[in-house]
Amino acid sequence: MSKRIHLIAICGTGMAALAGMLKQRGYEITGSDTNVYPPMSTFLESMGIPVYNGFDAAHLEPAPDLVIIGNAMSRGNPEVEYVLNEQIPYASLPETLKNHFIRGKYSCVVAGTHGKTTTSSLLAWTLQSAGWEPSFFIGGIPENFGQGFQLGNGRHFVLEGDEYDSAFFDKGPKFLHYLPSLVILNNIEYDHADIYRSFEDVQISFRRLINLIPAKGFLIACSDDPAMRNMLKAAFCNVITFGVGEEAQWRVEEIRVVEGGTEFVVMRGQERLGPFLAPLEGMHNAKNATAVLAASEALGIPRERAVAALRTFKNVRRRMQLLFEQNGVRIFDDFAHHPTEIRETINSVRLRFPERRLWAVFEPRSATAKRKVFEQEYLHAFRGADNVVFAPVHRPDKVPEAERLSLSAVVDGLRSQGKSVEILPTGEQMTNHILSQLRKGDVVLFMSNGDFGGTPALLIQKLKTGTAPPH
Q1: What's the Cα-to-Cα distance from 68 to each of 29, 267, 314, rounded to whole Å?
Q2: pLDDT digits (tens, 9 = 90+) for 151-175
Q3: How many Å is the Cα radius of gyration of the chain?
């Protein structure tokens, strides 16, 4: 068994969580990264894991028993080169999860383009509430647990199944390593344009995932998704469908916003189930919750326990997280960065606050968000907002000019719809623009997979101090 393990690029969310899990298993862990700052640096320090700032072959002397190489690393990195030259055993993050933690467990993988983090967090909480002591590995922070991983004593392991590639030496998606016995598939859209050349390439990866589920396993699939419906016939396992369409075996109906979240009914054939209360926003989250209810029944969790878990779920950090509420102004933070996620998030806010002015503040930061392929979709995604503010494209040099998103084209398109739209640098300039036009009762929704250069915190600070009260 490997005794000392070194992680290259340890400060990524998944890598830091894996380091913590390995530490709990009794391994001696070290790591290195160039972005050593909170919250990951403080988390690793609390776990007693030393982290080197920067990459240097000296960090691998004496040679560890195993090196885990993060998927952001490539040839030319001094530590990667040393590992290859000295023939030190190495692996990717998902390969390590499979060999050290998943094998021998009942693996529950939540995959799809959208909703993975929320749905996997809810499934983990449902198993926990049922007393089943699951393990889980999730790419966000479920508020019920306070961290993105857990090593439980139970049989089940819940994983957020990422379709992104595994490492420079393994360009296949992470979820192909996860030995799935049960898979929840919410939807399939074109994403990760930096690694998938076409939507067909994306679909091939998901077909491979479905093909790994054993005959006695389960595929819980959203039948509203046309791409998904085309894949179901090829499944060798038990297939259970959910959605709002007539063909769904678990059909979501009667969705309404209530105090404390969303209430909905599920029709299972002719059987009416519910109403259920989920402390989540929007149609998409009602479907996420229904997928978990269907999965819970497939796993044998008593329905009353699954319903109780749904009612007590606290959501995921940075998923429609309320940051501030004062004088009728509300500020939310969300991780949305794909046009579909943006549209659904805006729609859920609009459903909750139909009479309020809605600010949609967006930073094109992810590899996909920065690409021209989604220009037209953005025009639909922001339709539900009253005011739109864009941060400039983050690191535009990372995308070839011919493939790069033209924010000015998006702005022109939205202005033609009669919307107030601006492109402003994050920080003081963006904050002051919002403050200059903010009214009592406005809802401000920040959406990015980054931190907006601290803009939400700065806006809140100025509102709290009364520097510029809303009109």
Answers
A1: 11, 46, 32
A2: 999 999 999 998 878 999 999 899 9
A3: 23
